[in-house]
Amino acid sequence: MKKFKQYTSLFMVVLLVGFGMVFTGCGGKKQKATEVGAPRGNESFGDVVSRRGLTADDVLAAAKTYTPDHLKDEYVAINSGGQEGNMPTYLVPSMRLVKYTPTNTRQPYDGYGYSAETYDLMKTGFIDGEEILWGDTHHPGFSETNGDYDGKWIVINDKANPRIYVVDLKDFEVKQVVINPIFRSDHGGAFFTPNSEYILEATQYPAPYDHKYHPLNDVNFRKYWRGGLTYWAFDDKKGRIDEKKSFTFELPPYTQDLSDAGKNATYGWGFTNSFCTEMYIGGDMQGRPPFEAGCSSRDVDYLHVTNWKKAEELIKAGKIRTKMVNGMRVIPISESIKHGLLYLIPEPKSPHGVDVDPTGDYIIVAGKLDSHAWVYSWAKIKKAIETKDFEGKDSYGIPIIALKTALHGSVEVGLGPLHNQFDPKKGIIYTSVYVDSWTTKWNYLTLKVLDHVSSNYNIGHLVSAHGDTKHPQGKYLIELDKLSIDRFNPVGPLHPQNHQLIDISGPKMKIIYDLPLPMGEPHYTVMMNVNLLKPIDKYPVGTDIVTLKKAPYATEAGKEYTKRYGNTVEVFGTINDGKVTPANISVNQGNHVLIHLTNTGQSKLDHYVYEIASYDKEYRWRPGETATLDFVADKAGMYPLLLDKIHSPEGRQLQGYLAVKYNAKAENARLLAFSKRIQKDNEMQKFQPSAIELKNLLPGELEFLNYGCTACHKFGKDFNGPDLLMVDKRRSDAWLKSWIMHPEKHRKEADIEAMRQKYKLAMPNQNVSEQDIGKIIEYLKAKSAQVLKQQQENNK
User: Fold this and answer.
1) Contact, 567 vs 591, CB < 8 A?
2) What's the pLDDT at 494?
């Protein structure tokens, strides 16, 4: 009977919607809204629809997303927070924000970074001894079992600082921070393998593994700079990365991008795309082409294919030579080639996403500088590997599988394609298209476009429900729009990002909700069925939430005490039923103070924020938690101790006072420390660069490289400028000297103007010294002779 009443009520709502549309004449045609301030107390459904100028689609979208108390959301979406350094979480389809999980930034509301326990966790992410209290979180990834989400863990990378954060989904709190010891940046993380054996983390911008200074020029870049792909071993039971069992594939100094782990047919393999395979280092201020131009001169970039399963087996058996770099096990490029662990395949220019389909049979890549998405066949790739059917090698000797050998086909999806997500229907995929600002729905088996839906504006990534697993669930797709200009009421120069919820349950895609996110620059989202989550709402009394074990400072109610030794004052207290014991704390200026408080509360409402007014100390205690405030009492005075009872009408209440007794010696030390800090901030840091190895360079080659001549010229073929082979035979030394020192004096010469028209680039004045000009001319002669000799030997 109860169900019958529910269905009857639902039927009446549908009738009301229908009648409202008929009576107001807005069945799909937008009406002009009346005055915003019109009376609304006794409005009917039809009145509201008419006043706001709603269409039938508007009302239907509202009905699909409105979630009253007796309904629950279907999915949870966890996002990157960009420069905010956290993970905002909202529910789908209501799009209600429910959580911010801080990772590398302090968060007063959550308390992260304000207790000794959480700050000590943050410290494990400080790099080279430098306190880093910000980050740029980019790509969250759920843990998996048999290729499907299991609701246990989520990891996220920090692009700006190469770190991985592990979060326990029982309480949505960070449990581990791991720094990549050889990378300097990190974009292609964090992605789990199908059984959470490993987390893939690719660097983005190549850098020297040894973290030493090397002058930036083309020769050094190719010699010292490296990309890389780390497979972080993950202990699924503990929810921790095992650094000792992890390893990194050394990769060429291409700019690696996103990754995906194979599944089913491709299990044991990983796929990482890249851009700037030109290995261009920029230098437009020195007259070289801009970085973007130099990094997009080739027609394709390279998809990296790595065999992590075989690598794991070889490492365990001791049958592969690895090297330890800053504590990281590295597989050199030469070893990857020798053991068949690494291959390259041409991919669309400047890709930003590689996605393995649910069967594992196909890999889809979209390139930002190509209007097509490319579909690769694993069967074809595997056959090429088995038969050693390669079209050649890159400059580091890595085998290249020809595009025509690996490709299933390509589809024109729009200008600036980025990221792909899958649908439960076989062959259906969704691709975000940045420049055209739409999502394309297409079939990667038949290679046919099925539908488009526009975004607002410049869509980056997108996510569908379980859209990167073995079993996508469809229903919803979320576009992550970079811009929202004209979409929401203006609130100043900074615009929020816009997450647009799209209904993909039918043949045509429809936007049904807009969610502005005014924080950082959210990049990537993962969406999981809420039924997989098993969150807790309290901890056993005395729990350290970082370790989820009993804290050594846990204190029972009635057993509070204060301990004093040397210059340290240690307080063991409790928060019990909204009261802090001890209420008052007395210390001397200069004392090291540790306040350990245990929240004995065990109800959902027992959340408290303990604060020391005007002392920059506070923390939020969850039910059952033990945490510590750790500080030096460097300022004398009386400071109120406050307790904010978050879920109580009493709010913030005075508990007592922190009494800091004046000490002249401590006050002098405080002032001296402040003065030294200012002095240090004003100091200029100097360093001496290491000497460059010169033994393999021709005379004058170093000067030729350092003045950026390789940006435009090669020997034996045209490039961005004319071929320099035998230029010393075509021009006199005096002319070459005048040309290099004063190119502007020669621009009216007919042949110089003809070259300018051909190459669309004028020879810049590089301000070469007279001494270096002689060396460069000497190099032009030596290099021409070397190239000619090599050509003669090849022709024999």
Assistant:
1) yes
2) 84
